[in-house]
Amino acid sequence: MGRSSLDLYSNDVGARFEDITSFAAYVGGSPTNISVGGRRLGLNTVILTALGEDPVGDFILKFLKAEGVVTCFIPCKPGHRTSAVVLGIEPPDRFPLVYYRHHCADIELTIADVLAAPVTDCRVFQFAGTNLSRDPSRTATLFAAERARQAGVEVVFDLDFRPDQWHDPLAFGVAARSALRSVDIVIGTEDEIRAAVLSDPAQVEHTSSVSDTKVRGDAGDAVRQLLSLGPHALLEKRGERGARVHFRATAGGIETIEAPGYPVAIANILGAGDAFAAGFLYGHLHGWGWRKSARLGNACGAIVVTQHGCANFMPTLAEVMAFVADRGGLE
To answer: Any idea what the Cα angle at residue 68 is, between residues 64 and 71, rounded to 5°?
Structure first.
Protein backbone atom coordinates (compact mmCIF):
# COMPACT_ATOMS: atom_id res chain seq x y z
CA MET A 1 0.00 0.00 0.00
CA GLY A 2 1.35 3.41 -0.91
CA ARG A 3 2.73 5.68 -3.53
CA SER A 4 2.99 5.15 -7.27
CA SER A 5 4.50 7.46 -9.83
CA LEU A 6 5.81 8.12 -13.27
CA ASP A 7 9.60 8.15 -12.90
CA LEU A 8 11.62 10.17 -15.39
CA TYR A 9 15.25 9.00 -15.31
CA SER A 10 18.05 10.98 -16.88
CA ASN A 11 19.43 9.43 -20.06
CA ASP A 12 22.57 11.53 -19.64
CA VAL A 13 24.34 9.41 -17.04
CA GLY A 14 26.96 11.46 -15.23
CA ALA A 15 25.59 14.82 -16.34
CA ARG A 16 24.71 17.52 -13.84
CA PHE A 17 20.97 17.86 -13.39
CA GLU A 18 20.89 21.20 -15.19
CA ASP A 19 22.67 19.66 -18.18
CA ILE A 20 20.26 16.76 -18.75
CA THR A 21 18.85 16.67 -22.29
CA SER A 22 16.42 13.72 -22.14
CA PHE A 23 14.69 11.30 -19.79
CA ALA A 24 13.40 7.72 -19.94
CA ALA A 25 9.90 7.08 -18.58
CA TYR A 26 9.44 4.25 -16.07
CA VAL A 27 7.08 3.32 -13.25
CA GLY A 28 8.12 3.96 -9.65
CA GLY A 29 7.09 4.50 -6.05
CA SER A 30 8.42 2.25 -3.29
CA PRO A 31 5.37 -0.02 -2.71
CA THR A 32 4.73 -0.15 -6.46
CA ASN A 33 8.33 -1.22 -7.09
CA ILE A 34 8.02 -3.91 -4.43
CA SER A 35 4.77 -5.22 -5.92
CA VAL A 36 6.43 -5.55 -9.33
CA GLY A 37 9.60 -7.05 -7.87
CA GLY A 38 7.63 -9.62 -5.90
CA ARG A 39 5.52 -10.52 -8.90
CA ARG A 40 8.55 -11.04 -11.14
CA LEU A 41 10.01 -13.41 -8.55
CA GLY A 42 6.78 -15.40 -8.47
CA LEU A 43 4.63 -13.94 -5.69
CA ASN A 44 0.99 -12.98 -6.18
CA THR A 45 0.93 -9.26 -5.45
CA VAL A 46 -1.89 -6.75 -5.05
CA ILE A 47 -1.21 -3.00 -5.04
CA LEU A 48 -3.36 -0.49 -3.17
CA THR A 49 -2.43 2.91 -4.52
CA ALA A 50 -4.45 5.68 -6.16
CA LEU A 51 -4.24 7.33 -9.57
CA GLY A 52 -5.58 10.48 -11.12
CA GLU A 53 -7.84 10.75 -14.16
CA ASP A 54 -4.87 11.46 -16.40
CA PRO A 55 -2.59 9.80 -18.98
CA VAL A 56 0.12 9.33 -16.33
CA GLY A 57 -2.24 7.12 -14.36
CA ASP A 58 -3.07 5.19 -17.53
CA PHE A 59 0.67 4.70 -18.14
CA ILE A 60 1.18 3.20 -14.67
CA LEU A 61 -1.93 1.04 -14.83
CA LYS A 62 -0.99 -0.44 -18.20
CA PHE A 63 2.47 -1.37 -16.93
CA LEU A 64 1.18 -2.99 -13.73
CA LYS A 65 -1.41 -5.03 -15.60
CA ALA A 66 1.21 -6.25 -18.06
CA GLU A 67 3.36 -7.33 -15.11
CA GLY A 68 0.52 -9.36 -13.60
CA VAL A 69 0.11 -7.23 -10.48
CA VAL A 70 -3.52 -7.18 -9.30
CA THR A 71 -4.81 -3.65 -9.95
CA CYS A 72 -8.56 -3.95 -9.47
CA PHE A 73 -8.45 -2.31 -6.02
CA ILE A 74 -6.75 0.89 -7.25
CA PRO A 75 -9.19 3.82 -6.92
CA CYS A 76 -9.21 6.86 -9.18
CA LYS A 77 -9.17 10.22 -7.40
CA PRO A 78 -10.82 12.93 -9.55
CA GLY A 79 -9.28 16.34 -9.04
CA HIS A 80 -5.89 14.89 -8.10
CA ARG A 81 -3.01 14.07 -10.39
CA THR A 82 -0.90 10.95 -10.50
CA SER A 83 2.48 11.49 -8.87
CA ALA A 84 5.75 12.02 -10.78
CA VAL A 85 9.45 11.98 -9.94
CA VAL A 86 12.38 13.36 -11.95
CA LEU A 87 15.80 11.83 -11.31
CA GLY A 88 19.39 12.62 -12.18
CA ILE A 89 22.07 9.92 -12.34
CA GLU A 90 25.61 10.89 -11.34
CA PRO A 91 27.28 7.67 -10.14
CA PRO A 92 28.71 6.52 -7.87
CA ASP A 93 27.15 8.65 -5.14
CA ARG A 94 24.97 11.48 -6.51
CA PHE A 95 21.41 10.75 -7.56
CA PRO A 96 19.38 13.97 -7.18
CA LEU A 97 15.62 13.60 -7.40
CA VAL A 98 12.65 15.96 -7.41
CA TYR A 99 9.17 14.86 -6.35
CA TYR A 100 5.95 16.21 -7.85
CA ARG A 101 3.41 15.16 -5.23
CA HIS A 102 1.39 18.32 -4.53
CA HIS A 103 -2.21 17.14 -4.11
CA CYS A 104 -1.26 13.81 -5.65
CA ALA A 105 -3.76 10.97 -5.96
CA ASP A 106 -2.12 8.29 -3.79
CA ILE A 107 -2.03 10.49 -0.69
CA GLU A 108 -5.85 10.57 -0.96
CA LEU A 109 -6.26 6.88 -0.08
CA THR A 110 -9.01 6.53 2.51
CA ILE A 111 -10.32 4.06 5.06
CA ALA A 112 -13.08 3.21 2.57
CA ASP A 113 -10.38 2.26 0.03
CA VAL A 114 -8.78 0.00 2.62
CA LEU A 115 -12.11 -1.68 3.41
CA ALA A 116 -12.57 -2.42 -0.29
CA ALA A 117 -9.13 -4.08 -0.57
CA PRO A 118 -8.06 -7.56 0.64
CA VAL A 119 -5.74 -6.40 3.43
CA THR A 120 -7.12 -9.10 5.74
CA ASP A 121 -6.99 -11.83 3.08
CA CYS A 122 -3.26 -12.05 2.34
CA ARG A 123 -0.09 -13.42 3.90
CA VAL A 124 1.80 -10.12 4.13
CA PHE A 125 0.60 -6.51 4.19
CA GLN A 126 3.43 -4.09 3.33
CA PHE A 127 3.33 -0.31 3.49
CA ALA A 128 5.75 2.62 3.23
CA GLY A 129 6.61 5.52 5.49
CA THR A 130 5.65 8.18 2.96
CA ASN A 131 2.06 6.96 3.32
CA LEU A 132 2.09 8.54 6.77
CA SER A 133 3.15 12.02 5.67
CA ARG A 134 -0.38 13.37 5.23
CA ASP A 135 -4.02 12.50 5.78
CA PRO A 136 -6.17 10.81 4.61
CA SER A 137 -3.42 8.35 3.61
CA ARG A 138 -1.90 8.43 7.10
CA THR A 139 -5.07 7.35 8.88
CA ALA A 140 -5.98 4.87 6.15
CA THR A 141 -2.57 3.21 6.39
CA LEU A 142 -2.65 2.96 10.17
CA PHE A 143 -6.13 1.49 9.91
CA ALA A 144 -4.98 -1.01 7.28
CA ALA A 145 -2.00 -2.15 9.36
CA GLU A 146 -4.18 -2.52 12.45
CA ARG A 147 -6.85 -4.40 10.53
CA ALA A 148 -4.32 -6.72 8.87
CA ARG A 149 -2.60 -7.50 12.18
CA GLN A 150 -5.91 -8.33 13.85
CA ALA A 151 -6.63 -10.79 11.03
CA GLY A 152 -3.31 -12.60 11.59
CA VAL A 153 -1.60 -11.08 8.53
CA GLU A 154 2.12 -10.33 8.89
CA VAL A 155 2.69 -6.58 8.63
CA VAL A 156 5.88 -5.22 7.06
CA PHE A 157 6.80 -1.52 7.29
CA ASP A 158 9.41 -0.05 4.93
CA LEU A 159 10.46 3.22 6.61
CA ASP A 160 10.90 5.00 3.24
CA PHE A 161 12.00 8.33 4.73
CA ARG A 162 11.75 11.10 2.12
CA PRO A 163 12.59 14.31 4.03
CA ASP A 164 11.01 16.73 1.57
CA GLN A 165 7.65 14.99 1.99
CA TRP A 166 7.43 16.03 5.64
CA HIS A 167 6.83 19.48 7.11
CA ASP A 168 9.34 18.60 9.85
CA PRO A 169 11.78 15.65 9.99
CA LEU A 170 10.72 14.99 13.58
CA ALA A 171 7.18 14.42 12.32
CA PHE A 172 8.39 11.39 10.37
CA GLY A 173 9.61 9.76 13.57
CA VAL A 174 6.39 10.52 15.44
CA ALA A 175 4.30 8.97 12.66
CA ALA A 176 6.62 5.97 12.19
CA ARG A 177 6.63 5.15 15.89
CA SER A 178 2.85 5.43 16.06
CA ALA A 179 2.58 2.65 13.46
CA LEU A 180 4.92 0.18 15.14
CA ARG A 181 2.41 -1.40 17.49
CA SER A 182 0.77 -2.98 14.42
CA VAL A 183 4.04 -3.99 12.72
CA ASP A 184 5.91 -7.31 12.69
CA ILE A 185 8.93 -6.46 10.52
CA VAL A 186 10.59 -3.09 9.85
CA ILE A 187 12.89 -2.46 6.86
CA GLY A 188 15.13 0.57 6.55
CA THR A 189 18.57 2.02 5.96
CA GLU A 190 20.75 3.19 8.84
CA ASP A 191 19.68 6.80 8.17
CA GLU A 192 16.01 5.84 8.09
CA ILE A 193 16.31 3.88 11.33
CA ARG A 194 17.89 6.87 13.06
CA ALA A 195 15.26 9.19 11.59
CA ALA A 196 12.50 7.03 13.03
CA VAL A 197 13.66 7.86 16.57
CA LEU A 198 14.83 11.41 15.81
CA SER A 199 14.32 13.81 18.72
CA ASP A 200 16.64 16.69 17.80
CA PRO A 201 16.38 18.53 14.45
CA ALA A 202 20.07 19.44 14.77
CA GLN A 203 20.86 15.79 14.00
CA VAL A 204 19.64 16.26 10.40
CA GLU A 205 22.36 17.16 7.91
CA HIS A 206 20.89 18.91 4.87
CA THR A 207 22.96 18.76 1.70
CA SER A 208 22.53 20.05 -1.82
CA SER A 209 20.41 17.03 -2.71
CA VAL A 210 17.33 15.81 -0.87
CA SER A 211 18.40 12.26 -1.55
CA ASP A 212 21.69 12.90 0.29
CA THR A 213 20.10 14.05 3.57
CA LYS A 214 21.78 12.33 6.54
CA VAL A 215 20.69 11.78 10.14
CA ARG A 216 23.29 11.56 12.91
CA GLY A 217 22.92 9.41 16.00
CA ASP A 218 23.57 5.99 17.51
CA ALA A 219 22.15 3.43 15.09
CA GLY A 220 22.39 0.65 17.67
CA ASP A 221 20.35 2.62 20.17
CA ALA A 222 17.81 3.43 17.43
CA VAL A 223 17.45 -0.27 16.61
CA ARG A 224 16.78 -1.05 20.27
CA GLN A 225 14.21 1.72 20.55
CA LEU A 226 12.28 0.62 17.47
CA LEU A 227 12.22 -3.05 18.46
CA SER A 228 11.01 -2.12 21.95
CA LEU A 229 7.87 -0.61 20.39
CA GLY A 230 6.49 -3.88 19.02
CA PRO A 231 8.18 -5.34 15.91
CA HIS A 232 9.99 -8.64 16.35
CA ALA A 233 12.55 -8.00 13.58
CA LEU A 234 14.26 -5.04 11.95
CA LEU A 235 16.10 -5.40 8.64
CA GLU A 236 18.88 -2.86 8.20
CA LYS A 237 19.82 -2.30 4.54
CA ARG A 238 23.55 -1.58 4.22
CA GLY A 239 24.17 -1.27 0.47
CA GLU A 240 27.11 -3.24 -0.86
CA ARG A 241 27.79 -4.46 2.71
CA GLY A 242 24.53 -6.40 2.58
CA ALA A 243 21.99 -6.39 5.41
CA ARG A 244 21.62 -7.05 9.09
CA VAL A 245 18.58 -8.65 10.68
CA HIS A 246 18.07 -7.48 14.27
CA PHE A 247 15.81 -9.22 16.83
CA ARG A 248 14.78 -8.63 20.39
CA ALA A 249 16.70 -11.10 22.58
CA THR A 250 14.98 -12.87 25.47
CA ALA A 251 17.28 -11.18 27.99
CA GLY A 252 16.33 -7.73 26.71
CA GLY A 253 19.27 -7.24 24.39
CA ILE A 254 19.54 -7.41 20.59
CA GLU A 255 20.56 -10.40 18.48
CA THR A 256 21.82 -9.79 14.94
CA ILE A 257 22.23 -11.95 11.85
CA GLU A 258 24.65 -10.76 9.17
CA ALA A 259 23.69 -11.26 5.51
CA PRO A 260 26.64 -10.28 3.27
CA GLY A 261 26.02 -8.38 0.06
CA TYR A 262 27.10 -8.79 -3.54
CA PRO A 263 29.41 -5.91 -4.56
CA VAL A 264 28.83 -4.68 -8.12
CA ALA A 265 29.60 -1.62 -10.22
CA ILE A 266 26.94 0.99 -9.42
CA ALA A 267 24.93 2.58 -12.20
CA ASN A 268 21.97 3.86 -10.15
CA ILE A 269 21.16 3.17 -6.49
CA LEU A 270 17.50 4.26 -6.71
CA GLY A 271 15.14 1.30 -6.38
CA ALA A 272 17.74 -1.04 -4.90
CA GLY A 273 16.05 -0.98 -1.49
CA ASP A 274 12.71 -1.89 -3.04
CA ALA A 275 14.32 -4.77 -4.91
CA PHE A 276 15.80 -5.90 -1.59
CA ALA A 277 12.35 -5.84 0.02
CA ALA A 278 10.82 -7.85 -2.82
CA GLY A 279 13.57 -10.45 -2.63
CA PHE A 280 13.41 -10.70 1.14
CA LEU A 281 9.63 -11.12 1.10
CA TYR A 282 9.86 -13.88 -1.50
CA GLY A 283 12.35 -15.83 0.62
CA HIS A 284 10.50 -15.12 3.86
CA LEU A 285 7.17 -16.32 2.49
CA HIS A 286 8.84 -19.49 1.22
CA GLY A 287 10.32 -20.25 4.63
CA TRP A 288 13.95 -19.72 3.66
CA GLY A 289 14.99 -18.28 7.00
CA TRP A 290 16.17 -14.77 7.82
CA ARG A 291 19.71 -14.92 6.49
CA LYS A 292 18.96 -16.64 3.18
CA SER A 293 15.93 -14.39 2.59
CA ALA A 294 18.02 -11.29 3.25
CA ARG A 295 20.72 -12.64 0.94
CA LEU A 296 18.13 -13.00 -1.81
CA GLY A 297 17.12 -9.41 -1.13
CA ASN A 298 20.75 -8.34 -1.37
CA ALA A 299 21.10 -10.10 -4.72
CA CYS A 300 17.98 -8.42 -6.11
CA GLY A 301 19.25 -5.03 -4.94
CA ALA A 302 22.67 -5.66 -6.46
CA ILE A 303 21.11 -6.46 -9.83
CA VAL A 304 18.97 -3.31 -9.81
CA VAL A 305 21.86 -0.96 -8.97
CA THR A 306 23.47 -2.00 -12.26
CA GLN A 307 20.36 -0.89 -14.17
CA HIS A 308 18.87 2.42 -15.29
CA GLY A 309 15.57 2.41 -13.38
CA CYS A 310 13.46 0.72 -10.69
CA ALA A 311 10.28 -1.28 -11.35
CA ASN A 312 11.04 -1.90 -15.02
CA PHE A 313 14.33 -3.60 -14.11
CA MET A 314 13.31 -5.86 -11.23
CA PRO A 315 14.83 -9.34 -11.76
CA THR A 316 13.04 -12.67 -12.17
CA LEU A 317 13.92 -15.56 -9.88
CA ALA A 318 15.83 -17.26 -12.71
CA GLU A 319 17.88 -14.09 -13.24
CA VAL A 320 18.70 -13.84 -9.54
CA MET A 321 19.75 -17.46 -9.32
CA ALA A 322 22.01 -17.06 -12.33
CA PHE A 323 23.51 -13.94 -10.71
CA VAL A 324 24.31 -15.64 -7.37
CA ALA A 325 25.55 -18.86 -8.98
CA ASP A 326 28.82 -17.12 -9.87
CA ARG A 327 29.04 -15.35 -6.52
CA GLY A 328 28.86 -18.10 -3.91
CA GLY A 329 25.10 -18.69 -3.94
CA LEU A 330 22.67 -17.59 -1.23
CA GLU A 331 23.93 -19.60 1.73
So the answer is: 55
